[in-house]
Amino acid sequence: MSNDTPVPPDGDRGPRDDAQDPAAPSDGGLSWNDLLAGRTPAAGNPVSPDPAMQDPAVQVPAAQEPPAQPQSRREAREAAAVAAAAPEVPPTPPVQPTGPVALQPAGSSRSQRRSQRTEVYPEREKSGRGRGAAIGCLVIVLVLVGAAVGGWFALQGPIQSFIASTQPPADYKGDGTGDVNFVIKDGDIGADIAQNLHSEGITASFGAFYDLLLKQSPAPVFQPGAYAMHEKMSAASALTALEDPANRLENTVVIPEGTAAVDVYSLISEGTDLPLEDVEAAAKDVASFGLPAEAKTLEGFLFPATYTFDPGVTAPEVLTTMVERSFQALDEAGVAPDKRWDTIRLASLVQKEAGLRDDYYKVSRVFLNRLEQGWKLQSDATVAYGTGNTHVVTTTDAERADEGNLYNTYVYDGLPIGPISNPGDLAIDAALHPADGPWMFFVTWNLDTGETIFSETADEHDAAVAKWLAWMDEHPEYGG
Prior knowledge:
The chain is mostly helical and 480 residues long. It is built from 17 helices and seven strands. The chain has helices at residues 32-37, 51-54, 73-85, 110-120, 122-165, 190-199, 206-214, 235-243, 261-272, 276-283, 315-332, 340-353, 359-373, 380-387, 397-400, 425-432, 458-474, and strands at 177-184, 225-231, 248-249, 252-254, 306-308, 441-446, 451-455.
């Protein structure tokens, strides 16, 4: 599937200013600076600074007080009434400049003056600075707690990666159960075999088998062909089975679903000992196999299955058996002969792009939604097929822009000009019975498990692609 946004044109993939003026008032007219400095509101209004609180050594001369203004009669009567009603308060004795609270000259230090203010005005200091300091401490604690929590979550990924790196690869125990035919292709190396064993459910992980291979001396030599294996085998059991000539199946050809025709020809040669040149020559006589008139090759009609042939079988006989098996599958699915071509083209695309079983029907829906909306399919699998690279579904910018590639669905509308793989029963059924949904995009983000994310919008798809790219960075064995 495309890793870019289709229609409008492709493309690879300001901070909000939430800062507040620290001097701006808040919490009833006080700023954060007021709170941290110990100034608190009185009756909902900011507290005005007290000259005596600023420096007890500074005295305000009486001569600087503004002269009293004459009172009106009404003001005089009100003042007299208030004075008569007020309780008699004894005069405050003057502060003596001796003892522990004696005021220091103007040249005293800031710490000394702060100590003096605390003792001369104990209630004011307690109710103001104490509350502000408590609020300041609370803010600091909350910030530190938030930073600690954020740091913990940020470190989860690296911590888990480190723990995983110290653990041995997952491995099954025993000889496994059930029967599986496993194919070693001509040219496969140890890493290829290890990956294919894991992909087909024979071993628990790539590393379990590959690490075991690296410990062997001398290194094992594997013969191409089909082997009788089991599901969920331990790496050691799988290695033993592949080294046992008795497990190699004679005249047996195993065609996995989604295999391209060029690779099918090699598998036929390896399984039957027929020369590859004979198989390829027989495949060029397309008209002799009864395919739809649009077909230029046998691609799409070499049904994936396990075939066992009698000794002396010929290349045309082998190919005819596979084509007839494909027609049988289409007939059983209810596909009329005049619909075979379009059905196989879509099914071959679904087969190559889908991962998990249920996803086949969703992938089919995505492609049909695009066709209905007039979008280009933008399938990397079709582009890769046109370049001759039948083993991957990733492409480069230059390959996706190549108009000379007639399979390039980034450039050309509609289904590809021909099938790009040989689909099985599941892909055929998905092409005929797609799921219901609004999806326009998908990306298989975990190539080990086949997990796929389906999206309706380009933004959702971009996020899914980012997840896939991150996974690829962690799995360089896939070429990320």
